[in-house]
Amino acid sequence: MALTQKDGFSSKFGVIAAAAGSAVGLGNIWRFPYITGENGGGAFLLLYIFFVIVIGVPVMMSEFVIGRRSESNALGSFRKLAPGTSWWLIGLMGIIAAFVILSFYSTVSGWTLEYVFQSINQGFEGKSMDQLNSDFETFTSGSFRPLLWQMIFMALTAVVVLGGIQKGIEKATKILMPILLVLIIAVCVRSVTLPGASEGLKFLFEPHFEKLNFKSVLMALGQAAFSLSIGMGALITYGSYINKDTPLLSTSIQVAAADTLLAILSGVMIFPALFALGVGNTGGPGLVFVTLPAIFQSMPGGTFFAVAFFLLVSVAALTSTISVLEVVVAYLKQEFNISRLKATMIGTISISILGVFCTLSFGPLKDNTIFGKTVFDLMNYLSANVFLTFGALFIVIFTGWILGKSNFVDELNKSGKVNPVVTKVLFIIIRYIAPVAIGAIAIGTFFIEGLT
Ligand code: TRP
To answer: Domains plus CATH for the chain?
Structure first.
């Protein structure tokens, strides 16, 4: 088999660890809570879960199928499966999306490293939410420290990606993701036992549909795509490293379930604390960086938890950033026939340059806005709501109409026959339901609300 000599994942658990490692990251712990907060809580959560099931899983499976069938990168796979057509442009859009995502993601990843450092120095001790809030603002509005951490983070990402698939990506994720889950559960327990915590749970779980507007629907879809790592070819790239014995259907479901569980647990961690500790602020990128230190302070062994927690959030971010960088590296390496080292250097350096603008968006470049958004906000918004949404749209159209049912089903059946009713329903979703739904939401929102 082709993959035996090539670098690739060694087992199904390895695939799940790496794909869940990609999926679980700042999207769950940092982005999900504040986006949910800004969109009113419970009803948004339901919408989010609905999109994960109906759109997320089918798109994820499509990406795995495209990647494994072509054994190629995000762009090369379309060239291989639809030669002589323009479908490779979707791959190109994915490569651009990788730049957009990693530029702002590395900013926030850098913040998590700063917070590891601050936890070690017991920098949160005895501080009120207001103080923690102003500390966060002071730190992020600087230049040197946030940039330094961002660059350290990009370097770490490059080092793992240089290690290749099995020895780098797979090994790191297998060990660290389970530890993260245990710690998150511990913090959830503390959060929900704070006096006054129930308001937060109500906010997260009681649906108030009147709080949703049209844009929330796009935000929920975008957040689902972002959190599942779909829509830009990261899972096409990982798919090309999956061997034929790995069942793609159950893998996709398990990864999506793990990712959704972690998003919900992050909500359970944040909202009760937010309500119990009583600051009305339910939004903004600073949400977890202010709320979590506040929880740690009220925990026995708080310093230990704070250090361990921010360290593991950094790791979760790292297992996501490697999947984004790998998209660019696999593309450069395969399409331009250059070494992994060279590809990694080119990708890392060019993304870091764009990243500087995102990091400085909280300080010196605060007032330099485009469409009323800072560079950071614009990248953050465009990534999920434009790039990944349209990426997901074109990926399902490609799978449903170009790749076709027989190829799709054949690839799913490689590791043992999947129930034909299941594949039939899946394919109907991929061919008709998902494209119409994503298209209607994306285009509808832009007509009603404008691009941003
Ligand atoms: N899913 C990751 C998170 O939630 C982010 C991420 C990693 C991503 N790879 C991706 C998002 C590819 C979109 C596409 O933190």
So the answer is: 5-447 (1.20.1740)
**Tens-digit pLDDT profile for residues 409-428:** 999 999 999 999 999 999 99
Inter-residue contact 331 to 239 (CB < 8 Å): no
* Angle between the N-to-C axes of helices 302-336 and 287-297, in degrees from 0 to 180, rounded to the nearest 10: 150
Answer yes or no: is the C-beta of 263 below 6 A from any ligand 1 atom.
no
- 451 pLDDT higher than 70: no
Provide mean pLDDT across the span 120-147.
92
- How far apart CA 107 and CA 355 sit, in angstroms, is 7
d(CA 449, CA 452): 7
Q: pTM value?
A: 0.94
What type of residue is 153?
F
What is the C-alpha to C-alpha distance for residues 427 and 320, in angstroms, rounded to an integer? 28
Q: Is 232 in the pocket of ligand 1 (CB under 6 A)?
A: yes
Give the tokens for residue 358. 């995102």
| Distance (Å) from CA 111 to ligand 1 centroid | 17
pLDDT at 142 over 60: yes
Distance, first Cα to last Cα, the chain: 47
Give CA–CA dist 95/103, Å, rounded. 13
Q: Average model confidence (pLDDT) for the chain?
A: 92
